[in-house]
Structures are given as C-alpha cells and as structure tokens.
C-alpha cells in the first residue's frame, strides 16, 4: 500500500535528491514574485514612455508638457520596483550581486522585461512554483 505524497514531494518526485520546499515558503515566494513581476512591467513600460518623451522633447523639439507626469510616476514605480525586488531577493535568498543586477534593470530600457523573465524562470524552478 502506498502512502499519499505531500504536494511538494509530488512536485519533486522526478528529481532525485531535490530538497522539499515548505508550502508556506512557497506561498511567500510566489506572492513576492507576483508583486515583483507587476512592478517590473510597470517600471519598464513607464521607462519606455519616459525615453519616448525625452526623444520627442530633446530630439524633435516637440511640446511634451502633457507628459510632464511621466518622470515622477516612473520614479515612484522604480522605488516600488526596488522594494519588491528586495522583498523577493530576501525571500529567495539571492546573493547581493543578483539583487544589484535586478535593481539596475529598472533604469535601462527593455532590460526590466528581460530580467523579470529570467528571475521568474529561476525562482519558479528553485521553489517549484
């Protein structure tokens, strides 16, 4: 007679020697990952909008006064991005360099999307989410 497997054991049944992740830790990491992903996407979109605004203003001498709010909102979104990446990094126990690279990705156009996908893949695999 076989005994029912724990959900985390079932997820790792095909991986011999893989450590079991406590369900509560998985829940906390999943929640932190979700917040990080949302913040990364919002920051990335606002950064692209900010770059477009700057190109229009300084490259083409266009009046972009209607987009004056973009820089402030991106700044606030970037702060949220830093906080959510720190939160995820603490829960996932990232090394400092991983967190630094993740944090910098919020100020380079398109990089926040790439790094978000990479971190999502890593965290999902590590914590069997």
TrEMBL record:
It is found in: Cell membrane. Keywords: Cell membrane, Membrane, Transmembrane, Transmembrane helix. The chain crosses the membrane at residues 32-52, 64-84, 96-115. Pfam families: DUF3817 (PF12823). Residues 1-19 have a biased composition (Low complexity). The keyword Transmembrane applies. Residues 1-22 are annotated as: Disordered. InterPro entries: DUF3817_TM. Residues 33-120 form the DUF3817 domain. Coiled coil: none annotated. It is a multi-pass membrane protein. NCBIfam families: integ_memb_HG (TIGR03954). This is DUF3817 domain-containing protein. It comes from Corynebacterium stercoris.
């Amino acid at each position: 007679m076989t005994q029912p497997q724990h959900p985390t054991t079932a997820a790792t049944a095909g991986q011999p020697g893989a450590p079991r992740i406590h369900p509560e830790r998985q829940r906390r990491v999943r929640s932190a990952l979700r917040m990080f992903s949302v913040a990364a996407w919002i920051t990335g979109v606002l950064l692209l909008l900010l770059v477009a605004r700057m190109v229009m203003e300084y490259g083409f001498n266009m009046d972009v006064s209607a987009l004056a709010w973009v820089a402030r909102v991106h700044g606030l979104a970037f702060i949220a991005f830093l906080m959510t990446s720190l939160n995820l990094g603490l829960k996932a126990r990232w090394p400092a360099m991983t967190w630094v690279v993740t944090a910098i990705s919020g100020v380079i156009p398109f990089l926040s999307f790439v790094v978000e996908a990479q971190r999502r893949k890593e965290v999902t695999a590590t914590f069997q989410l």
